[in-house]
Specification:
It is a single chain. The protein has about 300 residues and is an alpha/beta fold. It has 2 domains: about 170 residues, Rossmann fold (3-Layer(aba) Sandwich), CATH 3.40.50; about 120 residues, 6-phosphogluconate dehydrogenase C-terminal like domain (6-phosphogluconate dehydrogenase C-terminal fold, Orthogonal Bundle). The chain has 13 helices and 9 strands. The protein has a 6-stranded parallel β-sheet. It has a 3-stranded mixed β-sheet with strand order 7-8-9, with helices on one face. Strand 8, helix 6 and strand 9 form a beta-alpha-beta unit. Helix 7 crosses helix 10 and helix 7 crosses helix 12. It is globular. The mean pLDDT is about 95. It binds NADP nicotinamide-adenine-dinucleotide phosphate (NAP). NADP nicotinamide-adenine-dinucleotide phosphate binds next to helix 1, helix 4 and helix 11.
Length: about 300
Amino acid sequence: MPERDPVFRRLTLIGAGLLGSSVARVARERRDLAAEVVVTDRSVAVLDRVAALGFADQIEPDAGRAVAGADCVMLCAPVGAYAAIAAAIAPHLAPGAIVTDVGSTKVSVIRDVGPLLPPDVHFVPAHPLAGTEYSGPDAGFSTLFEGRWCLLTPQDGTSAVATERMADFWRRAGSMVEAMDPVHHDRVMAMVSHLPHLIAFTICGTADDLATEGEGAAATRPEVLKFAASGFRDFTRIAASDPVMWRDVFLNNREALLEMLARFTEDAQAMARAVRWGDASYIEDRIGRGRKIRQGLIEAKQA
Ligand code: NAP
């Protein structure tokens, strides 16, 4: 038995991939997050894996039945699916329940989910800044959230008690919690997460294109793979991420992502100009800034 009462009596997770299965695992392991963990997913194959892996107290293929009686419902599917999920579960939510999520965008989630929820349900959007390039129920692990930030984006009028319960939940899962305005969240994430992924996907495509662009270049492809240790390898790790999840992130944080991409493109052009004109001090200065940022991350234990 846990030493303190669980935050929730019945937690329903919708989507049992990397994030959903990690929440289920930490909840099952600690027992002071939720007394009962219910898992639903649109995919029968995923639910079969959940049963085999044994991290749910109850598996329920029907989302409406899965949320009935839950005091916390957490959306853990790609953000593009949220509106349809919210419409399907809304009539079955218990009065007073908290609906929350783990989605990587927050403005779109508030837009898509908020208006569909009954007025007697509390909506506390959240984003744990924790993940890997792997996906699916086998990829999750109970320590995923340890030492990571979880950002909450409550709205004006969101119950402070409901927000604090979610903060308590994530702290018990090992995270540091902070509240943030959703628009600000999306701009920050566009810079620190969405743009780096866009660059990684793009650079892998560029390298792959080398293989099909004429004879001289064709010889380059095996060499890109053979000598990938030099920088390119780090991009391929990020670029291995789930295509559906990232498609949805890009499409649901369009403006902020395009703004950051425009700024990046300008800076890349400035670097190109410095290389062209042999501006050594500019190049050195930019590389030095990168080093400092990395050092800061190491000191903040976020590296
Ligand atoms: P994932 O491993 O691909 O898992 C998503 C799961 O949701 C899959 O099992 C998928 O089933 C299921 N699903 C899709 N549509 C659904 C629907 N309509 N109803 C019920 N289940 C549905 O993805 P993930 O990495 O866990 O990401 C989940 C959420 O976490 C996303 O919103 C993402 O933005 C957020 N997030 C991800 C990371 C990360 O690094 N991965 C970090 C922080 C936050 P199918 O396999 O059948 O499609």
